[in-house]
Amino acid sequence: MSLRHRPRRAPGSLTYRAAIVLGWPLGLARVAWRYMWRTTPMRRTETVGDSSERPWTIPDDLVDDDLQRIEDGVGPLVHRRYSVRVAGASSSPEEVIGRFSGDPNCGAPAEVAVFVKVRGTDGLMCPGDEFLIRMPGPWDGPVRVVGMGPASFRLATLRGHLEAGQIEFRCRADGEGLLFEIESWARSGDRLSHLLYTRLRLAKEIQLNLWVETCLRLTRDLGGRPRGGVRVETHRVSG
C-alpha cells in the first residue's frame, strides 16, 4: 500500500497528551539528576568531517512532500554516532532490534521522549510507518521509517521536526558481546531550531542525553553492562 493510501491516526487522546506534558518537569529533573551523577563514563569527541561524508539514500517510494530532507535544513550538517558495547547480554542483535522496533519506548527514556505511532500497526515496524516523538518544549518530532534490516532500522524526519535528516539504530555481535549504535545525519530544521541547537545548545544537550540514556536503558534491558561506557562521536561536515 502506498503512503498516500495509508491513513494517519490521531496521536493519542487529549488526556494522554496532557499526561505526557505534565510529566515533563519532574521527568527532566530526574534526567538532569542522573546526568549529574551518572557513573558510566561518556566519551565525547568532536571533529570536522570530510565533505565526502553523506547520509543514506531514501527509497523513492518513501519520499513525498512531508519528508524534511537534509537539504531543507539550516546550518551545518552534523554526523553523529552513539555507541555502547554490551557485555553479558544473551539476546541476539536481531532480537534486540526486533524488541526495540516493536516498541521504541522500551529503550527511550519517557522523561525526554515518548514515541506515539500514528501510521502503521502497533507492535510491528515496517517501511512507511510513522511516529510522533513527543519531547519537552515546542518540538515534537514526526518521523517516518525509511529503512529496515535484520538488525537495524532507520528513520527520516518529517515537516515540523526540530531537525532535517535521518537516524539509524543498529546492533551487531562484538566479540563475546554486542555493539549497539545510533547514527544520525542532520541539520537544524529551521532558524529557531538552529538558535536553540547550535547557539544556545539547549536542544543539543536534551538530544544527547536522550540517546545516551537509550543506549544505557537498552543495555540494562538486555541484562548486560556497558563495557567502556558510551562513546559519542560528532563530525561537523564541511562543504
Description:
There is one protein chain. The chain is α+β, with helices and mostly antiparallel strands and 239 residues long. The protein has 5 helices and 9 strands; from the N terminus they run ααββαββββββααβ. Mean pLDDT is 81; it is low at 16-24.
Based on the model shown, name its key terms:
alpha+beta, 239 residues
Write the layout of secondary structure elements.
Layout: H1 14-22, H2 24-37, E1 42-49, E2 74-87, H3 93-102, E3 114-119, E4 130-134, E5 141-149, E6 152-157, E7 163-174, E8 177-188, H4 191-199, H5 202-221, E9 225-237
Outline, from the CA principal axes?
globular
Structural class: alpha+beta
Low-confidence stretches: 16-24
Quote the beta fraction. 35-45%
Task: Please count the beta strands (DSSP E, at least 2 residues each).
Answer: 9
Task: Return Rg in Å.
Answer: 17 Å
Order of SSEs: HHEEHEEEEEEHHE
How large is the count of helical segments?
A: 5
Condensed summary:
Strands 1-9-2-8-7-6-5-4-3 form a nine-stranded mixed sheet.
